[in-house]
């Protein structure tokens, strides 16, 4: 993998202890049952959460984000990587490898 790549070998999946509730405004509220913490996702995060739930690989998420919000593939990749990192850090997803070699900017 090159600098700051998302592994497409493994596909992110929701943690079994996370309950997602879509809101009328397009946001999604996540509740982690083990930690009792709530998380809120905006429209972009909600789209990515739905893709995670449907077992979409990271490349598919990047393409969907780029198509839906008319952003460059580079910006879409950065957004996907940032959200996946955050979701993983809060134990909301599993099954994901993110590699960031030294020197990444």
How does this model look, in words?
- By secondary structure, this protein is an alpha+beta fold.
- The chain has a single domain (5-99), classed as Outer Surface Protein A, domain 3 (Alpha-Beta Complex).
- It has three helices and seven strands; from the N terminus they run βββββαααββ.
- The chain has helices spanning 43-53, 58-69, 73-89, and strands spanning 5-6, 13-14, 18-22, 28-32, 37-41, 93-94, 98-99.
- The strands form three sheets. It has a three-stranded antiparallel beta sheet with strand order 3-4-5.
- Helix 1 runs antiparallel to helix 2 and helix 2 (58-69) crosses helix 3 (73-89).
- The longest helix has 17 residues, at 73-89.
- The protein starts with a strand and ends in a 6-residue tail after the last strand.
- The model is unreliable at 101-105 (pLDDT under 50).
Describe how the helices and strands are arranged.
Blueprint: E1 5-6, E2 13-14, E3 18-22, E4 28-32, E5 37-41, H1 43-53, H2 58-69, H3 73-89, E6 93-94, E7 98-99
Antiparallel strand pairs: 1-7, 2-6, 3-4, 4-5
């Amino acid at each position: 993998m090159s600098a700051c790549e998302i592994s497409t070998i493994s596909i992110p999946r929701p943690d079994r202890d996370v309950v997602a509730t879509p809101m009328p405004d397009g946001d999604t509220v996540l509740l982690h049952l083990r930690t009792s913490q709530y998380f809120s996702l905006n429209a972009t995060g909600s789209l990515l959460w739905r893709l995670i739930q449907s077992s979409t690989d990271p490349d598919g998420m990047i393409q969907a984000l780029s198509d839906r919000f008319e952003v460059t593939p580079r910006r879409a990749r950065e957004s996907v990587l940032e959200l996946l990192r955050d979701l993983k850090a809060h134990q909301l997803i599993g099954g994901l490898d993110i590699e960031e070699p030294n020197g990444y900017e």
